[in-house]
Amino acid sequence: MSLLQVSDLRIWDGITGNVFVPNSSFELKPGSCLAIVGESGSGKSLTCRAIMKLNKRTIRQSGDILLKGIRLDQLSEKEIGRRRGKQLYLILQNGMRAFDPTSAIGIHLRETLVHHYGWSRSEIVDKMKQAMLMVRLKDPVEIMNKYPHQLSGGMLQRIMIALAIVLEPDIIIADEPTSALDTVSKYEVMEQFVRLRENMGCSMIFVSHDLGIVRKLADEVLVMRNGSIVERGDASVLFSEAEHEYTRFLVSSHTALNEHFKRVTGGPVYVNR
Ligand SMILES: Nc1ncnc2c1ncn2[C@@H]1O[C@H](COP(=O)(O)OP(=O)(O)O)[C@@H](O)[C@H]1O
Ligand SMILES: [Mg+2]
């Protein structure tokens, strides 16, 4: 049984008629992590946002999107709105865009959790404190009093992960959540994604350029190119036995980059651990 089933997804520009994703079908099994890899512009973000019906109005989509047996594509904006955050939780590249710049982090967290669960203020603070400590954010109360611009990109992403721990969504969709971060923050955030998978076993769609990260996190991988899925399969198999030339190219560039990095730094690279 699949948790999420996407069938014949087509995404196009409603104004120009330009087709970005001609026909995609894939599924996410409960408790598993599906990685989507592919070069910039291959349709990864449009695909993620289509699942949540979050693409701009000018972007059109067709096809069936089934979450736990419910056709998401047929829901009204209000109904899908209720499922965003609680059932489908999106973590974007830039944490800053996920938060309202004019309010303190704690207010944002409270509004989100009251909206989905109706918890009291003290319940929310307790749960968030616990979750923030889990993602190694020290001084959670101090952080909740800060505004987004007062925190680093890595901290904002870890707050997003902490909120996911509290919300317990059915699926976390993470769209290149570490690509805007510096190396240290990238490592810290990645560590939390790995822990999230290990400790909570939550189902996840993880978009990334970084094959090292994908190797650590994903059970299955989709390789996208020019809007189409050109290869798919078990993560471990795909890395060693990629059939499509493009996948082999991605894997070999990753290996070459890693080797280069090892030579430059004289040591092992974290993504290979
Ligand atoms: N809002 C938009 N309007 C027009 N074209 C878009 C829009 N969003 C994305 N595209 C185009 O769709 C293609 C796929 O984009 P995207 O899904 O963002 O790629 P990826 O996430 O793989 O880098 C690109 O060619 C991009 O230019
Ligand atoms: Mg993208």
Structure description:
The protein is of the alpha/beta class and 273 residues long. It has a domain at 30-40 and 83-241: P-loop containing nucleotide triphosphate hydrolases (Rossmann fold, 3-Layer(aba) Sandwich), CATH 3.40.50.300. Helix content is 42%, strand content 23%. The chain has ten helices and ten strands. The strands form two sheets. The protein has a six-stranded mixed beta sheet, sandwiched between helices. β1 and β2 form a beta hairpin. The longest helix is centred in the C-terminal third of the chain and has 21 residues, at 245-265. It is globular, with a radius of gyration of 19 Å. Bound molecules: adenosine-5'-diphosphate and magnesium ion. Magnesium ion is lined by residues 44-45, 175-176.
Question: Could you give a short description of this structure?
Answer:
The protein contains 10 helices and 10 strands. It is an alpha/beta fold.
For the structure shown, list the relevant keywords.
disordered C terminus; 4-stranded antiparallel β-sheet; binds adenosine-5'-diphosphate; 273 residues; binds magnesium ion; alpha/beta; Rossmann fold; 6-stranded mixed β-sheet
List the helices and strands in order: EEEHEEHEHHHHEHEHEEHH
**CATH class group of the domain at 30-40 and 83-241:** Alpha Beta
Number of helices: 10
CATH superfamily of the domain at 30-40 and 83-241: P-loop containing nucleotide triphosphate hydrolases
Annotate the secondary structure layout.
Layout: E1 4-13, E2 19-28, E3 33-37, H1 44-51, E4 59-67, E5 70-71, H2 77-83, E6 88-91, H3 105-117, H4 121-134, H5 140-144, H6 153-167, E7 171-175, H7 183-200, E8 203-207, H8 211-217, E9 220-225, E10 228-234, H9 235-241, H10 245-265
Parallel strand pairs: 3-8, 3-9, 6-7, 7-8
Antiparallel strand pairs: 1-2, 1-4, 4-5, 9-10
The structure holds adenosine-5'-diphosphate and magnesium ion (MG).
